[in-house]
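<goal> How does this chain fold?
<sample>
Here is the protein in question

***
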Amino acid sequence: HQTVLANHDRQYASLPSLSRSVAGVTSTSRHNLSSNKHSSSSNHLLRKTFIGNHNHKFWSLRGGALVDPATKIEFDDKLGNLSLLGVGVRKKGPIKVYSVGVYTNDDVAGTIAALPKSNKEGVLTTLRESIKSASKTSTTTFLLKMSFKVGAEKMAAAIAESVDPRTSDKGAVETLKQLILDGVAAKGAATPGTTLQFDCSDEGVKVSVDGTEIGSAPGLCQAFSDVFLDKDGVSPALRDSIVENSCDKAVAPKSSSSTSDRKSSSGDESLESIESTLIQKKEQAKGKVDVELVKLEAVESKLKPVQDAATGVAFDPKLDDGLYLIGAGSRKKSFVKLYAIAMYASPTVLHFLSSFQLGEEHQREASLALRNASRALDTLSPTTSFVLNIVFPVDAKTIAGAIAKSVQVRFGGPSSDVDELESLITEGIKRKGGQATKGTLLRFDCSKVGVSVSVDGNLQGIARGNDLGKALVDVFMDEKAVSPTLIESCLKTWCGAKAFTETLLEQCKKASKSVPKPTGDPRLRLKTDPSSIPLASLISKYYLSVPTSDDGQVLGL
């Protein structure tokens, strides 16, 4: 099913909204406990603003959700009745191991809300004392979301080693270590997207892995909290985020806040109202306001995610590289649902498809137009991407062979190009144990030079070949497409929405023009430090025009 906006305006119904995600996908069946890999299970409408000073920026989403800028992992604003205070990355050298979010009740959050951001250590000391005082009646939760694969023993040992010097109860530390080891070992390793939840209270620390409770280690509430909150905390970014996101807040009377909340959540705000709010927030954050980018965010805030009805998997509406969600469907083999799939492309493809009206009489013509636009792979739309979310477990050889076979019958080039594609898929899945388990993410970026393959957000390589990208597009878009529901979703989502796509396309162009030319080669920065690239730059012509592979040629800017 697809959710219709509150105002029931036909042209905005079921359109995807903006959320930043490496893999661009959420599953409502896997992430009900705030444990989705890179995005919110509550499908927030965008209300992104930069919070903080020049050195510390944290993407803030409507409703209080936050995105860790280092990993692009999103945390919901609520975890049960607990509220999100801040998020940050845990690094080991240059490696981003995981992102962590801390959740507390409103009373604990209230103890630091009015404190000045300038007194960081005072804020964090107050927070630690409040957590300790409230531990008898409430819980503080630390939610870890993995960004880098770590073995069960290493993960358990690393956390235990951080807790150990902060407590004298060595037996409890060993219990904690064993609980983490048991929970992670049950799935092989802490792979990207794995969640580890630690609920700290007076009774101890309750450990859960991917939403499954493992057990509790007694008496470690304060010690575990200090791992992240004291002056030697393992995530300085988390400490900064808590101060930036949760301090210097005016505390409104409860009687008036409910009215304000109802008004702000009505979902029926005008673009002008949203633009005004975004500009005001950025000015308050003392950041330079890019009016055109704010206007683009306001347009995108009118959109919603698309969910495949057959599998329950919902896909994020925009990938980090500026591609928009076109539609979502599923691949079936007889009665077995193998995977959910989403297609992403440039705003140009959306606009092209939206010129057709929704209806059976236009379906064949619109489907052909969609196929032609998505396989053009030209300067107006250089990349078309497909994200697959595995629903039925399958081994590496089977899934890679099935995809390769579907491509081969549509490809007129040498079979060695398809063999390379199959090899990349196989090797990527083997690195995670040889099995494409439920929730495994496969991403294929089709371009003029070939197909880029990623597994669970990790780039495996590029299978080069003239028209190989077009052949993969045809697997899902031609008259014998393996997922007819994907095509149906694309048409249902965008046909008849021309007024909206014109606005979106025009605003994308204006936003890209307002971005200055970057210093150096954009390709190098994308390869070495993509997380440092501002959103405005990512959607500009300088980065959107960077091909999947430059084939040794110099990029003309």
Summary: The first strand starts at residue 25 and ends at 27.
